[in-house]
Amino acid sequence: MSDAQQWEVRFSNTHRLPYFYNTASNQSSWEPPAGLSEDDIRQLPGAHQFQQQAANAASGAGGASSDKVRASHLLVKHRGSRRPSSWKEQNITRSQEEAEQTIRQHIDALGPNPSAEEFGKLASVHSDCSSASKGGDLGFFGRGQMQKPFEEATYALPVGGLSDIINTESGTHVILRTA
User: Fold this and answer.
1) Active site includes 173?
2) Is 170 a catalytic residue?
3) Which tens digits make up the pLDDT trace of 71-127?
4) Full-model pTM
5) Residues of CATH 2.20.70.10 domain(s) within the chain?
6) List 72, 73, 106, 126, catalytic entry
7) Domain 69-177 - what CATH class?
8) 73 is catalytic
9) CATH number for the domain formed by residue range(s) 3-59
């Protein structure tokens, strides 16, 4: 089986973005797999989702608009999370209460007005979300694109505001609204 035959394009309901999934290794990536040409990518199952996202980005659709917000987050998953595994830990066994205690410690460490840089450094090391590679940055999103408690908390924050503990199906979060 060639490398291209192992990959397909799937769609993240949480982030409302396409991603690449390797069916042989169960690896996923937001970026196109190394070694695949543009032609290879166009032939992947589900490739229309990636091509549509690229077309939206090129036309300016999907960028910032007045009804969109931008946020970074730090996620701590627990055994009750929708997918209790992460890039850091294959089998997460901590309780929700332990996850909340960990988030509380991060909130206390950040203080009331953390900079996006401070938050990003912490998220890049401690977050269970793949967005850790981007300092927890989720980019711009609109209503209906995130789980309801996450969306409501983000929209309620002022720019630069830090949330308290937020629980979703994905786990326990602290959110920094950045725009």
Assistant:
1) yes
2) yes
3) 999 999 999 999 999 999 999 999 999 999 999 999 999 998 899 999 999 999 999
4) 0.64
5) 3-59
6) 73
7) alpha beta
8) yes
9) 2.20.70.10
